[in-house]
Amino acid sequence: MQMDLDQLPRAALIKLLQEHEASLLEAGKDGIVMNYAGRTAPWQIIRQVKPKLSRIIKKYSCGTEDQQFQNELWEGENLSAMVTLYKYRGQVDLIMTDPPYNTGEDFRYNDKWDTDPNDPDLGDLVPKEDGSKHSKWLRFMTPRLWMMREMLKPNGVIAICIDHRELFRLGMLMDEIFKEDNRIGIINWQKAYSPKNDTGGKKGGLSTATEYVLVYAKDMDRTKTGLLDRTASMNSRYTNEDGDPDGEWTAADVTAPEYRKTGTYAIQSPFTGRMFYPTRGHWVSDRAEMKRSLEAWGVEYASKKLDDHCEADALVIKGCKFEGLEPKAGQAALKKARVSALKVMDRGVWPSLVFTDGGEGGPRQKKHLTKVRKGKVPLTYWAKDEYEDPLVMGTQSWDHEESGHSQAGVNELTAVVGPGHNFKTVKPLRLIKKIIQIWCRPDGVVMDPFAGSGTTGHAVLDLNQDSGASRRFIMIEQGNTEKGDRYAKTLTADRLRRVISGDWVSGKRPSMLGGFRFVELQRKDVDAKAVIDLAREEMIDLLLTSYWNKAEKAKSYLKRLDVGSHKYLFGVSPNNEGFFLVWGASESPSVLDRAVFRAIVEEAQKAGLARRYHVYARTAVYTGSSVEFYKIPDKVLEHIGFNIRADALNNEEASA
């Protein structure tokens, strides 16, 4: 008998789809499927999650309005946040994330999520002794991984960190959701130097010296692994003012993050006699190479023990006299060294170690564009990699020289925000930067739904600064300390602000270009009444975070204008078109009529905007070819992917 699907109620259709999906899996057409207590189809969970209202908090945001639109830090439950970030669905190049490892110390589960995934509470810590800890972790991860897949572009990649506790279950789950054929590789990276007997029982245990990153493509046939072609703006940073036969070069960092007693010491400039220490950790070059590079300026150097708390001797100009830590001014040795160094500079083809500002500045190392084009990148985060064909990744091990180690990650966080952050494990910047550079194009979008201390955002900012790229980040975090402190505000945002400003607790660093919006996900669901009840500034926040254009998609953004500067104008698009909001309180009229339009035109003319007007209002009695009208609440709800018809059907089904 042929079934008439048009006559079936919605609930029956859903059940039919579930049965069909199960039959396909049983037939082996979609590979393995995991079965665990409380399992629900992920798409069925996600369809229950409703978008939430959000607001931009200027206090925790960073940068000018032009800089803030580039990146976003969301505070809130990550499944709800990803559903709310509708404009980025299908627009993310790389998801780089580090979820809770289910160690008995880091994973919380809210039992209410089994029936209501909209509940915003994190729940209680799941102890090691909980017999259902693995099934709870899978119930937590499954809908989130499904939603992460939805956020990726067709050629997007997800790289997800994990340790031995849930490695096998996560691998099976990833094979199910992303399909085994889309597995790019499993990276095994060295997180520790010294062994500790922490697995395998009390007798003959093994040390967990490594952790893992599972890397999957959304569609392997459309994904490219490896370094992409550089843009013209990135290459413009390279010049060849000294006539170097190896071609154009830029002055790159000559230091690495971690401390090494043999590599952390002072060197003396042959031009000015000033003493320089590594700006972070240690010098990249070994001591012998550093001495050769300094002496290439025509000056002889010697080792000297200074009372500067460094275990290694300083490299100083031979014959230079010191008063404490400072060289005596005007001495012959310094004058002779300067003359020799200037001669080398005038001759051309400078040594690999250069001093900026015509010799008056600090040390940097030459990085040649020809080597970058071959896929070679600075030693500070690749070290000894020699991937000739990164398209074939397979199962690859990275030792600590290539990826950093977990203590380095903790030290990096402490250097930025100071001690007392209580993070015992932090991924090293070198590992995250390496993954981002391989799988995210220079102008791509990186998302981290488990932002933690903000390492992913820090890595994006570092890469942009190093290479002139323009990657953007979207990070989500809801973590609380034991005292209930939401550390998205007090730690994640603080770290990112300090990285951008250079105001590290450990000492001043160079500032970076960039900024971010801090967006708080509120507990209230978005619906028509919730939108209508918003105050003007709350409405502007919602429009700024949710607006997108189907033609531009996630590249759309609106620059916010100063509060109170205009009656109607609140934002400007990249093509200089104005966005206007006819809105007061909920009881005030919100009508676009001829008088309001005249005022809008006047505001646009004074601001020097294009003659196309984007107007949000509840009703419009005036229209024109130059007016793009957005009806409130319908258009606002559409911006965030809210389907009014589907929501009505859900409500009918729930009340049946």
Write up what this structure looks like:
The protein is α/β, with parallel strands linked by helices and 656 residues long. The radius of gyration is 28 Å and the shape is globular. Strands 1-25-2-22-21-3-6-8-7-20 form a ten-stranded mixed β-sheet, with helices on both faces. Strands 26-27-28-30-32 form a five-stranded mixed β-sheet, sandwiched between helices. A three-stranded antiparallel β-sheet has the order 9-19-18. The protein is 31% helix and 20% strand. Strand 18 and strand 19 form a beta hairpin. Helix 4 (78-84) packs parallel to helix 5 and helix 5 packs parallel to helix 6. 38% of the residues are buried. It has 21 helices and 32 strands.
What is the CATH C-level name of the largest domain? Alpha Beta
Q: Largest sheet at a glance?
A: 10 strands, mixed
Number of domains: 4
Please state the overall shape, judged from the principal axes of the Cα atoms: globular
Quickly give the CATH architecture of the largest domain: 3-Layer(aba) Sandwich
Strand order of the largest sheet: 1-25-2-22-21-3-6-8-7-20
As for the CATH topology of the largest domain, it is Rossmann fold
What would you give as the CATH superfamily of the largest domain? Vaccinia Virus protein VP39
List low-confidence stretches.
Answer: 23-28, 374-396, 400-405, 645-656
Instruction: State which percent range the strand residues make up.
Output: 15-25%
Task: Report helical residue fraction.
Answer: 25-40%
